[in-house]
Specification:
single chain, alpha+beta, 3-stranded antiparallel sheet, 4 helices, extended
């Protein structure tokens, strides 16, 4: 007990960090755009893009262990019949509309895609897509509640 007497004991409760849902959605979108940029840069360089994440699985003995597994990332860009490249942004399982009836950005050539993604990251940081991200998250929440 003499060791505890040397310490200053008190009653304390950790402060709960208030998670701002708007800031959280911005951070998720910026992380997704960073992955898209890495994927585009790998495609331009002709390299394979294989991101990984940690998953928990049971091993042969039945013990849960953390294992790195390849992560499935959907390609955000597509090509039309004329060969033009477009980039569509998805959040909460829904394609985001940048403006009324405008759901994609025309890129032209794949080599211009990383610069466009940087511009989209700046738009997300500035809060220009907050309304669309919030609406998509609310719609996703309604969809999940109906099925539960």
């Amino acid at each position: 007990m003499s060791h505890l007497k040397a310490l200053k004991l008190t009653s304390a409760v950790p402060a709960r960090a208030t998670a701002d849902p708007v800031q959280r959605s911005r951070e998720k979108m910026i992380a997704a755009l960073a992955e898209q940029k890495q994927m585009a840069e790998a495609k331009i360089a002709g390299q394979a893009f294989t991101p990984t994440h940690v998953v928990r699985k049971k091993n042969a003995e039945g013990v849960r262990v953390e294992v790195e597994a390849t992560k499935r990332v959907r390609q955000g860009w597509f090509t039309d019949g004329n060969g033009k490249v477009f980039f569509a942004l998805r959040y909460a399982g829904k394609t985001i509309e940048f403006a009324k009836d405008k759901n994609a950005v025309e890129i032209g050539e794949l080599s211009a895609l990383p610069k466009v993604i940087d511009t989209l990251v700046e738009a997300v940081r500035a809060g220009e897509l907050d309304a669309q991200l919030t609406a998509a998250a609310v719609e996703r929440g309604k969809m999940l509640r109906k099925s539960a």
